[in-house]
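Supplementary Note 3. Input sequence used for the single-chain structure prediction.
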Amino acid sequence: MTLYGAKPPPADDRPTVQVTAVSWPGDEPGPATPAAGGSRTRRRLLLAGGMTAAVLAAVAGAGAYAYAGDVPRGTTVLGAELGGRSRTDAVRELRAALERRSAELSAPVRVTVGERTAEIKPADVGLAVDVEATVAAAAAADAHPLSRLVGSRSVDPVVTVDVDRLDAALRGVVGSQGREMTMPAIIFTGTTPKPVYPKPSLTLDPPRSAEAVKAAWLTDGPAAVPLVEKHPATTREEVDRLVDELARPAVAAPVTLTTAKGSLTIPPSAIARGLRFSADESGKLAPRVDVKRLRTALADQLAKIEVTPKDAGLTIAGGKPKVVPGRAGQQLDATALSRDLLAVLPKADGRTVTAQLKPAEPELTETKLAELGIKERVSTFTTRFPGGLSSPRSQNIVQAAKDVDGTIVKPGETFSLNGHTGERGYDQGYQDAPTIVDGKLVPGVGGGVSQFTTTLFNATYYAGLEDVEHKPHSFYFSRYPAVIESTIYYPALDFKFRNNSPHGVLIDTSYTSSTITVSIWSTKIYDSVKTEYSPRRNITQPKTVYLEPGPDCIEAAGSAGFAQDAYRVITKDGKVIKREKFSWTYQAEPRFICGPKPPA
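The predicted structure, written as discrete structure tokens, is reproduced below.
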């Protein structure tokens, strides 16, 4: 629309007015003289011009009022009037309004996760109003011309939260309501493949948790944080297909391996040892041939063909590390052997693989070993095991210690206990001993290895090394330190640590008739690493459960459940440089009795 009688304003969204000619009483044409007619015409022009000026003045005033400041008039955030202000002034006003409500905004937020409710302090999880982003949102609010004059609007604040810190806090609320994901796997007992079917986890979804808590923070109601199921990428049907199409045919017959130095037969037992089915983080199951494990299974036969390179190593003698020299060798091409062997394993015929021998240098030479700086003991940890050295449980602990003894972890490397030992079965020297399955003790191969895992975890913990993965037991056992302990179960549960120091790490193990000890050797970089505990809370008492008597029934005295925090406090140069929180909630272990429930 164009404003008559005035120069059009620049094109924008300001309101415009059209003025039309106005007739006044007595202005009709008549026999007036030209002079009189001219006078009347001038009066009309003056009146019209005056009215136009008045209208223009009103419009200009309304436009100036409506468009004053960056934030549209009538805009509020949390009750603070930001309308008509520049962005700088609006930021200042909103900060002042938040400061006036600081007590209210710092009050704990009630959260409900499943059947549990807790309170979370906003400062602990980074809950805050992003003032600049909120003012930007307010400035972008409905800017229609009429609404700028007479409208009003309330703009929601832009709320931020530290998703990782919130997730860590909420996991303590989840407790026993959660469920770990069971990763799919196929394991061999002898030459019999056994499927491990996937099961979904019941856990938190960090982004959804964050949205729920942000939405509830500035209201009176609790935040309803959902627990969601997360399914592994491989289904039960896909596990069965891999068993039928690969695992079972793989061990149905031997494979012939030919080389320039002769041929050998790979028996089904060795194939079962080397064929691995591993799931990635998403639960996608994939087969591979672990040539290292295959070599171990074929040690006597391969000794006639290969010369195995030997890494330089360390042994502890006289309280000091001593270098054990390495040597070069000649070995089968592992990459080609793994690929070609995996290609023939599903077949019933044509099970022959031709392999090439290649020079093989040790991965760790004496020179490289000297550069790692492994020169002193930086930590040691001992736990006691019941039952004497001859019990199956003790023998499993000792076997795990032997498997790990002398391992060197280079700077930046991550050590995996499951990855190092592989499956702990009868063929690897492990025996049946009590293990926890579905909340009760049952016989299982490798029972007791959790005690070695706990001992190794504490040795790395007190060396100040980075904890990558561990999971405390469901029940508390007094032979372990509370919270800072770890169970293990192949392949679902692992213990991992990363060597985050600039020096190499040597794992040294030893044992007596009643103890297991793990020491970490490296170069000391911290003054001390200590643990501080919070008081125990949420204590629950065990219930009594009567079980069917039999060889698989194992009685237990039971123990109380509780929640507790442990803080790893690391000092260097006389100052605390890190205070790391570990939290866990133990379930009350039932008192298991093998026998019928007595009559009431």
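The radius of gyration is 38 Å. DSSP finds 17 helices and 36 strands in the chain.
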